[in-house]
Design brief:
This protein has 288 residues and is mainly alpha-helical. Helix content is 73%, strand content 0%. Helix 3 runs antiparallel to helix 4. The radius of gyration is 21 Å and the shape is globular. The model has no long low-confidence stretch (mean pLDDT 92).
Length: 288
């Protein structure tokens, strides 16, 4: 009876495409995408668990916020390392679907954390954060970004599936496919538009704002994917691509740090401008 049930389950999983792959290259013949998905879920679970423990142990403070930023950045980068595998093997739209779902999850689970270095800079411009505290938050984000690959490397080194073969120790390739200044403009423009969309959706409090925000951000990433990579986040770009073959340190700094930060600052200036604020007031009236 048990053997018959096991065979039926096995046939069901094979029809679903979840198993039936080479057992020599994939553990138990499991579809590689299942393992990639499992690794992403593992990162989300460990981060959620860490946040829960942290909330039990610490009261609200700058130190607690620093740790939350470290956790969020590590979670973001760990998931996006696996998304590289997804994009390389199943294409840009599989990558986009995963990114869309993950962005919705992060918007609901991170609370005040942003995992993005220009967010504290925006807070400085808005007068809600001082420079020293912002610097500490950015330091936490950078630290989380830099240690992430050590965690990912352990998982990839096990080589449970063929799509992870040699990934733990191979040289990475840069995503920048255009001139440095063009890349900086792309990252600046994309960051500015994403931040403006987030601010408008948050300010108007429309239904499903997090879903709309995630969809817009995902489409912006897809639009820039074959040009600069569409990172729109200096910490993420540093974790995934700093030191990769095809970019110098200066190119990386200009495109992913200066470009994205300029875009972020521009979004604050544009959103706070009189014409935009007047438009937002009229928009709120219509929404209400």
């Amino acid at each position: 009876m048990a053997a018959s049930l096991a065979r039926r389950v096995s046939r069901f999983f094979k029809r679903m495409g979840l198993v039936g792959y080479s057992k020599r290259r994939n553990i138990f013949g499991i579809h590689p995408l299942v393992i990639s998905t499992t690794y992403i879920i593992l990162a989300l679970f460990l981060a959620a668990l860490a946040r829960k423990v942290l909330n039990l142990l610490l009261n609200d403070s700058l130190f607690k916020r620093m740790i939350l930023e470290f956790i969020a950045t590590l979670e973001l980068c760990a998931a996006c390392f696996e998304l590289i595998i997804v994009a390389d093997n199943w294409g840009i739209w599989a990558y986009a679907l995963y990114l869309f779902i993950l962005t919705i999850w992060w918007s609901s689970s991170w609370d005040t954390a942003t995992a993005c270095p220009y967010s504290p800079i925006e807070e400085i411009l808005e007068g809600s954060q001082d420079v020293s505290n912002a610097a500490l938050l950015i330091f936490s984000q950078i630290l989380g970004a830099l240690v992430t690959f050590r965690y990912v490397q352990i998982l990839w080194a096990m080589e449970l599936v063929e799509t992870h073969r040699s990934k733990a120790f191979e040289d990475c390739m840069a995503d920048l496919q255009v001139h440095m200044l063009v890349g900086a403009v792309i990252e600046a423009g994309g960051t500015c538009l994403c931040r403006l969309a987030s601010r408008v959706l948050s300010d108007t409090q429309v239904k499903f704002a997090n879903v709309l925000d995630a969809f817009f951000a995902t489409m912006m990433v897809v639009a820039a994917f074959n040009f600069s990579g569409g990172y729109y986040n200096p910490a993420l770009a540093t974790s995934l691509k700093l030191g990769c073959e095809g970019n110098t340190f200066v190119e990386h700094l200009v495109v992913y740090w200066i470009g994205a930060t300029i875009g972020s600052v521009l979004s604050v200036l544009i959103f706070k401008s009189a014409p935009v604020q007047e438009y937002m007031r009229s928009l709120k009236t219509k929404v209400d």
